[in-house]
Amino acid sequence: MLTLEKVREAAVRLEGVAHHTPVMTSEAIDDLAGRQLIFKCENLQKVGAFKFRGAWNAVASLSDEEAGRGVCTHSSGNHAQALALAAQMRGIAAHVVMPDNVAPIKLNAVEGYGAAITLCEPTLKAREATLAELQRESGAVLVHSYDDARVIAGQGTAALELLAQAKLDAIITPIGGGGLLSGTCIATRGTAPEVVLYGAEPAGADDAAQSLASGELVPQLAPDTICDGLLASLGKLTWPILRDHLAAIITVDDDAVRQAMRLLWEQLELLIEPSGAVGLAAALSPSFQSDAQRVGIILTGGNVDSAKFFQQ
To answer: Domains along the chain?
Structure first.
């Protein structure tokens, strides 16, 4: 059962290990949005993304017997980095399956944290099949990137911090597999139930929006977006939480995401990856119909090739 108490237990495990990331604001961006936006800077978290929170909570929760077997996962980047670092910090092995088109900055980081990497074709089917074989061979404990109660509880600590840092009317969180947003729902409903919760999703990978609209889980089939961290389908754990707690999911196109990335750089000097900027793009979208005047936005990561970014 995923509860506020589990998120608070994760916060205890993360104390002194993860960064308490700052919040930032911009009057220029507020003018564009017509409301105050409060940015939770998880791009400044360890490994440059919120993913460290969930990965460390999962690794720190393992028994000594489980930890001795090592951990494994498949990931396009940020969860892979986070799990590799968490495993390194606990002194255990990490095995990571990554697509062969993964961004070099993310591949190099995972290697740098000492994980054993197996590359495969860039499809979900190939990643899952490769991981299943790797797990059989290694005996490692699976730490799923989002559909894992320990991971979701860890991700929820970002919202706990944000709610302690600012008085909010609403929170917008990017959504891929839904781990961060599920944790955000649990943390917010338990501590500030009046805060309205929104998801932000690229139009080229809008399975969550389709699922919420239909009331049934719609799988991600052929995503097409620059937001490479938001390509996953919702999970068995995350979908019911999001279905029951979200007011809406706002979808935005890739051009809007690029504009949001540039705004964050120009106004706050924050280098944010596309998946991390989708929340701002949603807040600036005409589709965001809300009376909320103080909106928290979680900037989920900053692992982007700077040379490629400045070509946008």
So the answer is: 4-49+152-309 (3.40.50.1100), 52-142 (3.40.50.1100)
